Amino acid sequence: MSYPQQGQGQPQQQQAYQGGYAPAQQQQAQKGPVAVGAGANMKRRNPVGAWLGLPIITFGIYGLVWFFKVHNELHAYDRRIDNAAVSALLSMLFGAITLGIWPLIMWVKLGGRIAAAQRAAGLPASCSGGMGFLLGIIGFGVLYYQIQLNKVADRYGDTPAGQQVSLVA
Length: 169
What we know:
single chain, 169 residues, mainly alpha, two-stranded antiparallel ribbon, 2 strands
């Protein structure tokens, strides 16, 4: 068995010497954020409908559905956000076992996940788990979180839900 000699086998690319210590690098001026990944766009929901309308009509069942769907959509949007949909739903269904602590933790973590999605969309992270917790105590948490989620969906204009969009961070 023989090994290829220098100059034979795989063609090697050589760069001309340009003087100095290193080859000159060309830098392009960036006019906007550069895509670093892709994910599925989230659904834009009416915040008042998700907060008050549908939960009243469905006797609270839609609140559980909303919580599950939001976690699924966040994971589909950015795979770096862990898929906590089942854990979130179970926390709401069986949260009484932990005296309501587990649902509160999941509720605060949702704020962090939404903030991560806002950063991935190239937006400033304006969602706060603490604010969501405080507003959730007085009954406005879903309204707050849905408004924050709609900021991410609005970033992509009229792109339908589920269609692939680019992530910038």
